[in-house]
Amino acid sequence: MAQLIEKTPSAYEFPLLIKHLLHTPQRIARDQEIKYRDVYKQTYDEFFQRIGKLANALSDLGVKPGDTVGVMDWDSHRYLECFFAVPMMGAVLHTINVRLSPEQIVYTINHAEDDVLLVHSDFVPLIDMVKDKLATVKAFILLQDDFGALSSGSDFDGEYEALLKNASPDYDFPDFDENTKATTFYTTGTTGLPKGVYFSHRQLVLHTLGTVAGANALKPGGKGITVDDVYMPITPMFHVHAWGLPYVATMLGIKQIYPGRYDPEFLLRLIEKEGVTFSHCVPTILHMLLSHPLSNEIDLSCWRVIIGGSALPEALCKEALRRGIDVYTGYGMSETCPVLTLANLRPDMIDWNLDKQVKIRTKTGIPIPLVNLDIVNAEGEFLPHDGKSTGEIVVRCPWLTQGYFKDPEKSEELWANGWLHTGDVGYIDERGYLKITDRIKDVIKTGGEWISSLDLENIILQHEAVSEAAAVGVPDEKWGERPVVLVVLKKEFAGKVDEEELKNFYLKFVEKGTISKWGVPDRILFVDQIPKTSVGKLDKKVIRQQVREML
Q1: How confident is the prediction for the chain on average, in pLDDT?
Q2: Does one domain contain both 326 and 388?
Q3: What is the rounded distance in angstroms from the CA atom of residue 40 to the CA atom of residue 46?
Q4: N or C: which end of the chain has fewer CB within 10 A?
């Protein structure tokens, strides 16, 4: 029988709380900078004081342990302060997706039972419109870049900077159970109402440590994210805590740049001006930045970028590498906090040519420490890691959400048989690299064969004329489904490339054995833009509807 550790009565048990992530920066980084756009900067020492001031200000408004504080802001130093102060009080931070529809925003605020809302001035008109529908909110705090007098419109209980100015920096953040709920937010599913996921202090601390280990110890040369980096997230802070990287950057005492609302030219100028070395974003953001004319005038060779949210196309990876960007894939989802894998090269791959490296960098990656990830068939049986056997990705690790808030039925579905089911389909090769081939719901089932929509998108994006692409299945009486691809052409190729040329391009990959002949799409439709979700992913539900209307 296993023996338990004998506890010394006076020993401190050290619960895994978010406040403990601050020990290192409090010692080594007090003079380090945190900047917001090009209008505001503070030191870490000021940051620590402002966390205490924010906690006191919220406490004065009646916030107590167990209450929920919602935030509607762009990526900012204020958001970072909320990442720490709110959960460190024992309250719950609700990061509100400001890109949802007004009806969905109201639903998430009411469903999360927010007690206090921090609202950027850009969203005051929205709050004015829906305020009478908010069932639990007792106080509103205004966030504005030019602080001072309150904006007209909704009645606010204070302005953020004014409240902090009048508050004491001294706040005794208590110890409590590390399994205490720290954060919540809502998934942006393409069907039904948004689903609430939530994470504890323990989960967020372990995710922070696991991500540091995965980004550095498993990356040749250890250059993932380190103390000499300049960090700028290009993933919204409302989306899975900006993938948890602000916690990582703060724990390491790294210089941080928060860009506010995204604008391609402004982001590029910040990268150049501040010497940004580490970021993370979805493929559409990277594509947007590299397509901007200013990107050709800026040296990006010191920039490292983790790509997540959806597959990194090989063509985009090659273009980024050509610009000197160290780009590679990460994988996770809202329910996984999110990081599960990183596509780090192994030491023997460093000298590989660009084409071979691209194949690895665009894979989904190898699990970071503490992640137990596998693939199963429809019967729940584990499949071999042979680079061919394809099944659903399932996972266990200490930072996965325990379920969906107030939805036990979907929570049980998520955790069927004690494994979190991702809904993604993929395989694992002999060296342990995962490769996602599709979402279960997005696989194109044609004549008994499964065609990967991701493969079809990745292939056509290698054509010199194609800027963006999305593949979906449409109903077919004979074959069940057939693939159709939407394409956005680069401006210089508009009107110069037709459907037949692109179908012939697919046939080259049939000859190579990359796809079967059934994978060649029945139709290729040219569009000006492709619908995306609020976090920049391809919105396959809307795309299917668009295709049906075009055919």
Answers
A1: 94
A2: yes
A3: 12
A4: N
Indicate whether 452 and 434 sit together in one domain: no
Let me know if residue 111 belongs to a domain: yes
Q: Which residues of 3-73 form beta strands (DSSP E)?
A: 33-36, 40-43, 68-72
Which of 406, 410, 445, 508 is an active site residue? 445
Is 450 considered catalytic here?
yes
Q: How far is CA 91 from CA 136, 160, 491, 508, in A?
A: 15, 18, 50, 57
Confidence at residue 443, expressed as pLDDT on a 0 to 100 scale: 86
- Helix 245-252 and helix 201-212: axis angle, to 10°? 70
How many folded domains does the chain comprise?
3
Model confidence at 152: pLDDT above 80: no
User: Is 74 one of the annotated active-site residues of the chain?
Assistant: no
Residue listed under structure tokens 């389909």: 425
- Please indicate, yes or no, if residue 249 is contained in any of the structural domains: no
Residue 177's alpha-carbon distances to 181, 182, 299, in angstroms, are 9, 11, 47
Verify that 186 and 318 share a domain, yes or no.
no
The domain containing residue 430 runs over which residues?
Answer: 262-440
Confidence band, pLDDT 50/70/90 cuts, at residue 147: low
**From 108, 180, 187, 250, the catalytic residue:** 187
**Percent of the chain as helix, strand, coil, to the nearest 5:** 35, 25, 40
Among 113, 314, 450, 479, the one annotated catalytic? 450
Q: What is the DSSP letter of 136?
A: S
Q: pLDDT confidence of 188, banded at 50, 70, 90?
A: confident
User: What is the DSSP track for 300-359?
Assistant: -TT-EEEE-SS---HHHHHHHHHTT-EEEEEEE-GGG-SEEEE-PPPGGGTTS-HHHHHH
- Strands 420-428 and 391-396 come out as antiparallel
Residue 6 lies in a domain: no
At 233-287, the pLDDT tens digits run: 999 999 999 999 999 999 999 999 999 999 999 999 999 999 999 999 999 999 9
Q: Which amino acid is at 240?
A: V
Tell me: do 174 and 291 sit in the same domain. no
- Residue 419 and residue 334 in one domain: yes
Phi, psi of 181 (to 5 degrees): -60, 130
Do the Cβ atoms of 370 and 378 come closer than 8 Å?
no
Q: Examine the fold and report which residue of 401, 420, 440 is the final residue of a domain before the chain moves on.
A: 440
- Annotated active-site residue 43? The verdict is no
Q: Where are the alpha helices (H) located in 235-302, listed in sequence order? A: 240-243, 245-252, 264-274, 283-291
Which of 199, 228, 253 is the endpoint of a domain?
Answer: 199
Helix (H, G, I), strand (E, B) or coil at 196: strand
Average pLDDT over residues 141-156: 72
187 labelled catalytic: yes
Tens-digit pLDDT profile for residues 426-462 = 999 999 999 998 888 888 988 777 788 989 999 999 9
